[in-house]
Here is the input.
Amino acid sequence: MNEYDKQAKKFLVDSKTKCTIKEIEGGYPDWDVSHFRRQYNCTFTRNGKRRSFKFWASLAEGTCREYDILSCITKYDPGHYENFCANFGYDTDSRRGYKIYKGVVKEWQKVQLLWSDCLEQLAEIN
Here is the structure.
């Protein structure tokens, strides 16, 4: 187990979080329609709360580990749409940018509900 995987495992143990990763049907994500990718359903359970995320594997590895998910999920409040666009280079008139923003907000809400008391430790996973 490498240092990154140890970091993720430690967070899960310290935060008393259970992680389940199940491969589901892969395909072509709408943000990269030219490359087939494996897709996973990832569920985190903690303090009687359960949150699920869809995760598309990278082209390089094609697998999904706890570290892969924890390093990628939103760890900070995306703020207002205009600020989000300015920070990440989206046009405020872009439908695609707005769709991405709404997805990030939804993910942030799930992260907050699950780990509001240990966001600093989660943010250290990168």
Q: What stands out?
A: The longest strand covers residues 18-27. The beta strands are 18-27, 37-46, 49-56. The two ends are 16 Å apart (CA to CA).
